[in-house]
Amino acid sequence: MSEIDPQTLGEWLKWATRKLRAKQVESPDLSANLILSEVTDFTRSKLIGFAEEPLSADHQDRAYCLLQRRLRHEPMAYILGRKDFRNLTLKVSPAVLIPRPETEELIDLAREIQPRASHIIDVGTGSGCIPLSLAEVFPESHLFGVDFSIEALHVALSNDPASRVNWIRADWLEAFASGSFDLAVSNPPYLTEQEMETLEPQVRDYEPVSALDGGVDGCDQYRRLIPQIARCLRPGGHTVLEIGPSVAHKVAGLLNESGFRQISIHKDLAGRDRFASGVV
Ligand SMILES: C[S@@+](CC[C@H](N)C(=O)[O-])C[C@H]1O[C@@H](n2cnc3c(N)ncnc32)[C@H](O)[C@@H]1O
User: The whole model's pTM is what?
Assistant: First the structure.
């Protein structure tokens, strides 16, 4: 298996953490814990309590395989095939962006802004994290999730055993009739060309470019999407868009050009500009 064979759970954790750290993998000790927890079915706290427990040959082989992937900077969510998002544990694959913690805040903001929305659409849905969370907050509403990636829609569908969301393959909102929704949300690709060039390897080498790349100034997709949202909202309908801090000013301008009123920029819990909202 390797130059030394750690014999116990505790020894394996120390050994794997050292290797991950040497390769500058993010969160080396957490990654080692998650891998060993995955193969042994022990919780992370149980791993600490059972540090002297011997590691079986089967567990050692499986942990070694997962560790090799992490040593190549593959994100833990893809290695495990799942990611927690609010109350949900969602399946993820390299076809979808790994849901980010800041996106969780979009759900509460949408509820605050439009608490009685009946027809809600999430555009660029990826794993389906947004409409599936909105389904918990808006139990009576009709929900739609759109993506142009069929692979992403397969993942979203697999995360929706109760069939709460209508999943649709489309190029943004081009195929939708005017005035269909009273709430439209989206977390479109918004990284600038410069931000794309400085991405961490675990994002750059594994997550889909089509979920990240917003063009030179990060606004290519907002330029297409915002006028379409304006058209598809009913009078008085709201939009809530996730944004990168570097595009906040431009997105506010695009909302204004498309006739949105009451335009606001909202900060995330880290104090960074993260969402733009408006009403038609
Ligand atoms: C930043 S990801 C967001 C995924 C998910 N909503 C989330 O917050 O984790 C953007 C998503 O938009 C989708 N997308 C990109 N261009 C699109 C287009 N023209 N029409 C529909 N979806 C698109 C990508 O496939 C990707 O799933």
Answer: 0.94
Instruction: Say how many Å lie between the CA of residue 152 and the centre of ligand 1.
Output: 9
Mean pLDDT of 178-206: 96
Residue 99 Cβ < 6 Å to ligand 1? yes
User: What are the two backbone dihedrals, phi and then psi, of residue 225, each rounded to the nearest 5 degrees?
Assistant: -75, -45
Per-residue pLDDT band at 45 (split at 50, 70, 90): confident
Other beta carbons within 10 Å of 58:
9
Domains recognised in the chain with CATH numbers: 9-72 (1.10.8.10), 86-279 (3.40.50.150)
Q: In the prediction, which pLDDT does 1 show?
A: 47
Write the DSSP string, 71-103. Answer: HTT--HHHHHTEEEETTEEEE--TTSPPPPHHH
CA dihedral (50, 51, 52, 54) in degrees, to 10, reads 80
Q: How many CB atoms lie within 10 A of CB 186?
A: 24
Cβ of 185 closer than 6 Å to ligand 1, yes or no, is no
- How far from chain centre, in Å, is Cα 259? 29
- Quick one: CA torsion of 20, 87, 242, 192, rounded to 10 degrees? 10
